């Protein structure tokens, strides 16, 4: 694990809470990929990647029910399928749910409606994101500016990450109707470039955007994303001093991490690790630096996919991703875990 050099002196941020225990909440899942809480905190929506199904799950995981499937979703036998999900922050007055999924033609960002009972409608907002068996990205998150942010992978074609005209290997920023958000650096959907396979995306309480990215054979990354910045792939993997490139704030060896989802709670980033099979806690320090990462539950629950803050509680939801460990058939072995913070 290698820290990036600090950009300047900064006073420490409050340490905040730490994980104090885990409670199994719900089992019988197969690759639960995306989790998004309804703004009123009454339930979370959870996607199952290969089944293309969306579930409504109660706050303590005691009840769940399917609310619909996403049309035209095609699993890839690898990392593609139904991935990220985000709920319009104005729900239920604006009853929209946004999903990112793989189709026969490529990866899409689509909008559906959710009336509290079932999913309906289906409108494709973004096409033209190339797909592959691996490196599809797929995370969605609304920013404090009200716009939707999305991660896309390089679709196993590394040159796309440096191509500003390609939607692959990027962080995208779009309006609720799928157009380029005002102020985007290139006048397109592209917000940042030079990404390999980013699967983690979260905003901190200061409105800064953090991103976690799976590396190739050397380094996984935690990046502080700013508009128009180039994060180096494939010219850099991990620490980077190439002209015009932005170095990560923290790196890990791929055996320690292979990160997917991230969440920010009480001055720390929590990062779910797939190959690393642990939950990382990374303290935020001042303006643009991070502290020493701490690992929790190493090897105890297997591969970890998504971590989400629970509204109004000192807690996280954590999903496992063991059913796809070897790309085998769905077997219902995954779980949703509740992590207490204190």
From TrEMBL:
Region of interest called Disordered, as start-end residue ranges on this chain: 1-26
SUPFAM superfamilies: Soluble quinoprotein glucose dehydrogenase
Pfam families registered for this protein in UniProt: GSDH
Origin: domain of life: Bacteria
Domain Glucose/Sorbosone dehydrogenase: 31-324
Residue ranges with Low complexity bias: 1-14
PANTHER family per UniProt: HEDGEHOG-INTERACTING PROTEIN (PTHR19328), HIPL1 PROTEIN (PTHR19328:SF13)
Full protein name: Glucose/Sorbosone dehydrogenase domain-containing protein
Organism, scientific name: Streptomyces longispororuber
């Amino acid at each position: 694990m290698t820290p990036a050099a600090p950009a300047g002196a900064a006073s420490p941020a409050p340490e905040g809470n730490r994980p104090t225990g885990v409670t199994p909440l719900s089992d019988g899942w197969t690759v639960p990929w995306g989790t998004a809480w309804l703004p009123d905190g009454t339930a979370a929506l959870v996607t199952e990647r290969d089944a293309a199904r969306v579930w409504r799950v109660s706050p303590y995981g005691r009840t769940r029910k399917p609310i619909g499937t996403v049309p035209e979703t095609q699993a890839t036998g690898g990392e593609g399928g139904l991935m990220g999900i985000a709920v319009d922050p104005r729900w239920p007055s604006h009853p929209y749910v946004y999903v990112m999924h793989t189709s026969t033609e490529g990866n899409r960002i689509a909008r559906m409606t959710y009336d509290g009972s079932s999913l309906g409608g289906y409108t494709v907002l973004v096409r033209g994101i190339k797909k592959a068996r691996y490196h599809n990205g797929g995370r969605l998150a609304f920013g404090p500016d009200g716009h939707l942010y999305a991660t896309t992978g390089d679709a196993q074609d590394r040159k796309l990450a440096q191509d500003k005209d390609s939607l692959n290997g990027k962080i995208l920023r779009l309006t609720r109707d799928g157009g380029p958000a005002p102020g985007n650096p290139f006048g397109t959907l592209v917000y940042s470039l030079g990404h390999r396979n980013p699967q983690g995306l979260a905003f901190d309480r200061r409105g800064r955007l953090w991103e976690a990215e799976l590396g190739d054979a050397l380094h996984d990354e935690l990046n502080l994303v700013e508009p128009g910045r180039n994060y180096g792939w494939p010219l850099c993997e991990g620490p980077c001093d190439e002209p015009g490139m932005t170095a990560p704030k923290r790196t890990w060896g791929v055996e320690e991490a292979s990160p997917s989802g991230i969440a920010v709670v009480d001055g720390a980033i929590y990062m779910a690790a797939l190959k690393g099979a642990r939950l990382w806690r990374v303290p935020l320090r001042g303006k643009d630096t991070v502290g020493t990462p701490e690992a929790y539950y190493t090897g105890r629950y297997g591969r970890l996919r998504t971590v989400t803050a629970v509204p109004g509680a000192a807690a996280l939801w954590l999903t496992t991703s063991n059913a796809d460990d070897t790309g085998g058939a769905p077997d219902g072995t995954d779980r949703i875990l509740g992590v207490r913070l204190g």
